[in-house]
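User: Could you walk me through two proteins back to back? I'd like the raw sequence and the structure tokens for each, with a short line separating them so I can tell where one ends and the next begins.

Assistant: Of course. Protein one, sequence then structure:
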Amino acid sequence: MLLHNDMDDHSAVAPRPTLKPLPMVIFSSRWLQAPLYVGLIVAQAVYVFLFLKELWHLVSEAISFSEQEIMLVVLGLIDVVMISNLLTMVIVGGYETFVGRLYLKNHPDEPEWLSHVNAGVLKVKLASAIIGISSISLLRTFIEASTLGTDRAAVTSQGVLWQTIIHTIFLVSALALALIEKIGQGVDHPPHPPH
């Protein structure tokens, strides 16, 4: 008897509402973003190739590298991984938020962050990822400038200053986005009055 009720629940699927032609075209236009996400997957494949190339360079030349040079290459690898993480968030989160459902509920590999992602949360996560990438890049610049000296460094002191200013702007922007998202959540879900 219990089995029969379960089957009735699965077979009772609500009918999909039909849309008029213009709303249907407008709603279907979201699929124009799908090629963009496929393009980002190709870009991620390029980053995987770049990572493997840099990793091979590190392993094959490790004996001749100084500790600082190894640290710079490792920071470069971390930078590539963080950019790849950013691409994954944009691809998976953006597709789920703006194009269509991936139906990953209860899938063992569903990312933890995807269960509560929306456009606002995605913006904050992206801003946080950009800050992480900027931090690694800034750290690499500081290490290069201190270990290689100003005559061999790839950037000038003015370049380091501008990179620090841009990083600070990223940080302030991310804090502002997080604050706006928190305020927006408070407006969407006002506190319940005490009983």
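----
Protein two, same layout:
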Amino acid sequence: MKTSTINFTVELDQNNVPEKIVWDATEKPAEGQSETKAISISLWDHIQKNTLRIDLWAKDMPVEEMKRFYIDCVGGLAQSVLTATGDEYMSQEMNNLCQKLVDHLRKA
């Protein structure tokens, strides 16, 4: 059986706030660690029937980029729900929300 590994390393300051986040994966095209400013991981607990989440961002990540990051996350989830379930209505509603949020950012 083939396995794939994804690793995250988070450097924290004295207050346990992320200063630097790097990641690497066995299936990543480029070799070596890559820096990122934010990660959002969701895990489904099939026993408790709920989602476990890890959201981290480096303290130097600009707020406007954070907002775009979350819009992109919702858009990615819209595609995932369509691929995983075929639910076009749910996917479209999520994409509609993304468009509303993009419009909100443009007005700000």
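The chain has a mean pLDDT of 97.

Let me know if you want the two compared in more detail.
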